[in-house]
Amino acid sequence: MSSITIPLKLINLQDDGFHLLVEIVIFKQSHLAVLDTGASRSVFDKTLLEQHLTENPSAEEPSTDESYATTLFSTSNTLTATVPVLKLGSLKLKKYAAVGLDLQSVNETYQQLGHPVIAGIIGGDILVQYRGVINYKKLTLKLYK
User: Fold this and answer.
1) H/E segment holding residue 31
2) Which domain holds residue 27?
3) In whole angstroms, what is the distance from residue 135 CA to residue 140 CA?
4) What is the CATH number of the domain that holds 96?
5) Which residue(s) pair with 92 in the sheet?
6) 16-40, pLDDT tens digit by residue?
7) Are 132 and 142 in contact (CB under 8 A)?
8) Cβ count within 10 A of residue 129
C-alpha cells in the first residue's frame, strides 16, 4: 500500500479557531482548499466550476441539485459536474463527480482576515476513501492508495 504525503498550511481565524489549507489542482490550475474533516463531501466554488465547464464543451453540463451536499459553510443552491482530473499531491482523481457551492462569502471573510481565497473544501468522501491522516505537528496530510 503506497502513501502520499501532502503539506498543509494552518491559518488562524483571529483567535476564533484554525483552518487547514491544502493545495489542489483542478482544471490544470493550482488552488487552495480547506481540509474539513466535518464536511461529509468535498465541494468546490460554483463559479469556478461554471467558468471552466462553459469553456470546456467536453465537460458535462452542470445540473442543479439543492440537497446534495452539506458543509460547515453552506447548504444553499448547488450544482453537480464531472471534473476531468482533481489532484491532491500526486493523487489523481479522474472524472471526479464534483459538487459546486457559492463560496463567495467564505472568500470575502478570508480576504478580510488576510488569508488567501479558496477554491473548495476537501471533505469526508476523499478523506475516508483514501484513509486520510492529519499530522498537526508536521502539518501534513497522508493519503493511502
Assistant:
1) strand 29-35
2) 3-144
3) 5
4) 2.40.70.10
5) 87
6) 799 999 999 999 999 999 999 999 9
7) yes
8) 11
